[in-house]
Amino acid sequence: MKKYIFSAVLLLVFLLLAQGQIRAQGSGATQDIFKQFSDRVVKIEVVETGSAAKASVGSGFYASATGLIVTNYHVVSKIIHTPERYLIDVIDRSGQPSQATVLGVDVVYDLAVLRTGRRPNGYLTFETKPVDQGTRLYSLGHPRDLGLSIVEGTYNGLLKHTLYPKVHFTGSLNPGMSGGPALTQAGAVVGVNVATEGEQISYLVPAERVVALLEKTANTQDAPAKSFLTEVGRQIYANQARYLAGMFSQATPSVTLGPYSLPTRPAEFFRCWADALRRKELPYVAVTHDCSTDDYIFVSSEQSSGIVRFYHQMLSTEKLNPLQFYRLYSNQFQAGNTAVFGNEEEVTPFRCQTRNVRTQTGKLKAVLCARQYVKLPGLYDAAFRVATIGARNVGLVTTLSLSGASFDNVQLLTRRYMENIKWRR
Amino acid sequence: MAPLGYIEILDAKGGVIERVSVDSFPIAIGRAYSNDVILNDPYVCPMHLAVGPDEEGRLIARDLNSVNGLRADVREKRVPFLELHSGSGFLIGHTQLRYCSVDHPLAATVVDRENGKSRLYSPYVAVIAGAAIFLLLCLDAYLSTVERATIATVVTEPLATFAMLLIWSGLWALASRIIVSRFYFPQHVAIACGAVAGFFALTFSSEWLEFFFPFVPVIWIAGLFGSAMVVAALVYGHLKFASALRRSSRFWAALSISAAMAGVSAISDFASRSKFSNVMEFTGTVKPIDASWLPTISIDQYIERSRKLQQDLDTLAQKARATQP
How far apart are the first and last CA of chain B? Predict the structure, then answer.
């Protein structure tokens, strides 16, 4: 008996010691990483030249011996749009600011590469091979301009059902940490801090995208920031051409809402939701089906792009007479005249075209509204809305919204969308 | 003794203020009480003018060496005498006069076209029109109700609208009482009901027209010009009972007011269109009809016509770029 008690005590002591060792190792690793790599992380301030005060703050890190600095596009977007009003200061551990120029941007993945005249003491390398889910990561940055901080978190793989690969980082990123690195215990960069949804749900730009941009910009000479606006437009244009080309083609699955057969989830990166409004006091039923992409492209603080959304709403009634029902139906068709992002410098006002259109299965009232990006020629936001005509007590209002698309693609998707709306009479 | 003719005293617009019969010539005209025609005009002398036949039998108006003299009208120069015919005008001091013989030709009698319609303005018409409009308002409220319709939900809004209509009519009736000393409340109610009916007809017809022909901005046109016409008719009708204006004056007054309103509305519309807005407006109505009646275009035509939309946006974008640094 004594022997068992002795063994149990020994085991308990061993376990306690081991747990203490693990704890010591965990906090020690964080300290070590901070000590070892914090001098490679910088604060990036976008300064308004008129007042010499900072307009925004972000983070970045040295990524080459020549002093290339990686950050997010959204951290430095002000200087891309209005270079005459802003400059970029990079502040390293010494606290001395040095002015930086932009060498390259990847607006789709929200990355930018900068350079100062200063040579770093060291730089960070990248881990482009897959990392095991659950791997401990350490994110560095300047949350809310409170000073350089380190945040522990977990690698949870690449997001599924997204248009652009993003690392799901379970850890607390905060504003100001954007552009900072997320490191493995070995100090290799797995991703760049880019966004958070709160509750420890954060996202990183995968390291391979950063490496690709660095390779592209390695030999780039300094270019005026204004020229990057053209590059931003070119990248968004090329991106939309790639992902919109096959959308709503013949292979698009369909969903049935009453007598209507409608397009749904045209690609893996869409998320769809459905609901129905059935209440006793309402003499009609509204069934909705809503699909959208989660990924948007940050263009400026006033403008985002690259979102595709469509929303079906079927209305039906057994109690309203046709005159009453069509008042409701007309109101639903005209509803949602909402203000969307954008100001006069960024976009034109909307212009709309309304016509009665016949398709293979029936007749529609169709409205196409669009506006053009002023600074990024050739790109448009568009909303296309349709209402079916002819039934006495059932109707469908469906809307397709596109942002940052060429007009050719607006026309192509409008056509395919209409062709995908079918119904039984 | 039958008169030979009349001396007419005219107002500035040529309207007759007073007629003085002439039983025999010569006659004297002036400010003095001994005259045949006595004028209350400080610019006229006590013994200003004599009118009578000359040796050749012509009727002559002769200035009696007055201070301000005799003229054919304000544009003519002073003359010592004027030959008068039936209908001849002459001016002494600030008073315009005219001589007309008893056989002076008259304009044809104007047919009073409103005689036959007078019954339309009887109180019964107002009651019938009011009841019809109230029912129309209730019907509109009922058709707009997409929740469970109760009497309260259907009647409340029409009652408020109808009360506004009665207040409006009451104000016009008050104006009538002050200006023409008659209240005319039922008549004003009938006119206001007519205007409400006009607005209903305008809304109804423009919505259906825009449903059939969405490429024509019918609702906008009806909102601007149609409303102006209804307002003109409303003002014209109210002025008939609330003023002593002649028909042509009422017409121009109504037209001016409605044109001013349409102008303000057009300027305001233009200003709001010129102002930048990032709101998109899905215009268009849908109506319960058999789809086979609806004129349509093919998908190809729809896509082709959207090129015009692109051209408009390109023009707007170019303008915006030109104004940027």
Answer: 95
